[in-house]
């Protein structure tokens, strides 16, 4: 079976399609569940490795490496085919997971988690794009919702699994269990995923873009992370990192638009209505999710007096909304002519949920925050798969990896931005007492904390309004009709598809 590099995919045999889907779901589950599983084991890890001072950097190293590699891996998937890039990510993730489990010191673990983040980013850049290789456009839109449902389920089950493994065996097995699952995913991908043989070579890689993108994004992400760890926005460390990174991104833009023959990020894509609107939607929906995930437990514990154990379970309404609504939203989008209204509803639900959280006080009770979490989960459950599905229907097949990975990149970039901005607001309100984590007594009173979190969630709601406004300007493209992509066949990378 062969097709041009820009053509819509042909239907694979059911058995092959099932195996490929299993491989993709296993890869997604590995990448999605890994962070939450490790988070549950981190207190034990920090205690055994004597590394409390580097506690946060275990997560930071993973997140920064994953975010910066996503655009690069997405481009490589377009150039060399999704299958070899995805297999590279899986193999590297398995090795990095074993190394993390073998770590003897906290600095080693930070380094190995950065390596795992690198390969995890490769997976996240190509998993959702791979759906375009194994499903027809109509089924692909529906499967986007299913896959985001899997990601939501991973968020729910990750912490209890991590705690169970840590208590029953050892924290090292939190990493070691990735090895057999990763090997199973590799086998499924080898057997089921079609291989796109491309004429591209290493000489076609935009090395200038790769270097300048890394030099720009990494300092900015680290600088934003520092603001959430007690550094002021005006501190020399933060200013040097953020300004230096911004200047390098200017150089990256010049390289991409004036020098690169095969740019890593085709900037004209941002002038396309569907792509630009969905980038905004992806960014602000992820901005909201990160803020809710990080600050709702604080709301429950510090304002409503809920125990730490119970407060973690109260995030479930949001993650269940993401898990259950995603597949339904995928089917609804293919059935609606004007799915722009669904996008408007999604962002409006997120704004409403954040506003409700901003009204919570010491005497509010738990009903209001739970309803708010459901609204936010429903909104995110629609917005996440819609952003990916619309972009994949609007861009040619030759840029599928670039477009899809850009959506993923802006979601990942939104996390540090959200925590930096919202963390600065919280710190500005409660001062140094709030950083000690002591509520009541000599620390921050529940009333003071409620006032600070009011500003945090209200700021989030106002920010997400930008995404809400953007949805009104979305120009719908058919999510099932890929005739334009078929007509453009052969204008992208030359190559043919060879089924596994």
UniProtKB/TrEMBL annotation:
Q: How does it sit in the membrane?
A: Multi-pass membrane protein
| Record key words, sorted | Membrane, Transmembrane, Transmembrane helix
Report the protein name in the record.
EmrB/QacA subfamily drug resistance transporter
Out of the domains of life, which is the source?
Bacteria
Transmembrane helix: is it a keyword of this entry? yes
| One GO term describing the cellular component | plasma membrane
Xref: Pfam families:
MFS_1
InterPro entries this protein is in? MFS, MFS_dom, MFS_trans_sf
SUPFAM superfamilies per the UniProt record, alphabetical: MFS general substrate transporter (SSF103473)
TM spans (from-to) = 18-42, 54-73, 85-104, 110-131, 143-161, 173-195, 207-226, 238-255, 275-296, 308-329, 341-358, 370-391, 412-432, 452-474
Q: Which stretches make up the Major facilitator superfamily (MFS) profile domain?
A: 20-479
